[in-house]
Amino acid sequence: MKIITAPSRGGFAREGALALFVFSKEPVSAGLLDAHSADMTAWLMEEPSFKGKKGKISRLPLLNGGFSAAYLVGLGEREKNGKESVLHENIRSRSAELLRRCRADGVSKITVVLPDAPSFGTSCAVAEGAELGAYAFSKYKSIPEEERLPEPAELLLLDGVDEGVSRGKMFACSQNWAKDIANEPGNQITPVSMADMAVQWGKDFGFKVSVWDEERLLQEGMEGIYSVGMGSAHPPRLIHMAYRPSSPVRKIAFVGKGITFDSGGLNVKTGDSMRTMKGDKSGASNVFAVLRGAAKMNIPCELHGIVPVAENMPGGKSFRPDDILRLRNGKTVEIENTDAEGRLLLADALCFACEQKPDAIIDMATLTGACAVALGQNMAGLFTPDDEFADAFADASARRGERFWRLPMDDDRIAESMKSPVADLVNCGSRYGGAIFAAQFLKEFVSDGIPWIHLDIAGVDMQKDEYSVYSKGATGFGVRSCLEYLLSISK
Length: 491
Prior knowledge:
Blueprint lengths: L1 E5 L10 E6 L12 H11 L11 E5 L7 E6 L9 H22 L3 E5 L6 H14 L20 E5 L3 H22 L7 H15 L2 E5 L1 H6 L3 H7 L7 E7 L6 E7 L1 E5 L8 H4 L7 H16 L3 E12 L11 E3 L5 E3 L7 H14 L4 E6 L3 H7 L4 E4 L3 H13 L4 E3 L5 H6 L7 E2 L7 H10 L8 E5 L5 E2 L9 E2 L4 H10 L3
Parallel strand pairs: 1-6, 2-4, 2-5, 5-6, 9-11, 9-14, 10-11, 13-17, 14-18, 15-16
Antiparallel strand pairs: 3-4, 7-8, 8-11, 12-13, 15-18, 19-20
Helix pairs in contact: 2-3, 3-4, 4-9, 4-15, 7-10, 9-15, 12-15
């Protein structure tokens, strides 16, 4: 979607819909309307069902030429929007909801007026929300010609800041790229095709890509990735993407879990639990999007995107409960449950990430149902032993409106339960504290002295309903926070 700015006193075309963002108990800025339409919007503002309440959108048809309709978009009470991050998230969410409403109404052009002169931050929020709200994964859906409506094609922000609009659009496009990958079903994206995509993206966006096949994985001591993937007809891969700008200020490694479909392996999931398991590659999808977004934004950090990719299926070559695997750093792991496979991929990949000698590592994974039970579907888990790193990432995620909650990873009794009588570690334990167990397991594969964050995005990776900036399906949750963090350390 095209998102542009224009001065409110300029000669912009008055067509499509006019969207007026309003605070409750404040007059509507109706300078672009004729006297009758202005009176009608003032009347609509006082309607008990609207009154500028947060999240409410009301539509008023306009009959005197120019704009075809006016949308009043409620922001709630001004005093509750005093904190900058709160205001930006409110505008971001309302912009996304406005775009979904306009799509349903067949509106192709929207002119937006904010209650106050747009700043860099509010311009960024409008563009970010609008681009995210305009997203729909309809690649495989047939729509009869008579049911097709015009799609939102252009948004004009009056008096907006061009740099803020550009930044917001890039944040949103990056997240949408992650959604596109995660939404693809397992019969369309396999480990091999995902590796092919990485190679093509490297050519298109300027980063180097190397791929290890199943034989190389075994040679390199990556029995975790190898074993998880060998039950499938589609063999596993390790993808390494390296973005190296001139004079980088930092080196950061991103690691993403890439299970293109998770049946649970021999510990097969139930039917209901298997639905949405195409989204078990969301961490990998996010890493792809972060690398592409960073390259497009010319972020001056050297980035390593390390993506272990496999399909976890039952078959004659599947790994089994009681198997003992030796991972890249030499530690052995007894398999308790083949459905705790993601941590095996990540363990090998984290070892490889450490070998790149980065200044910091961030991994993203739909790792545990326990994290979803603990935090719900609107917040992801953050684990790290590094307080400074945790605070810096939390500040960045707050600016983008993505909620992470730091959970502990220093439980001695859980650490004791990780020990196996026949190997160095066991791959899962009790259902209690499962997310903490997984984080502490991963820590065993991170070298001392390297700051590391583990983001457990299970629960937020897929949504059944639209809300805020999220459409149905994959969310790309975490992409904007990672890009914001990279920008914050590049100053």
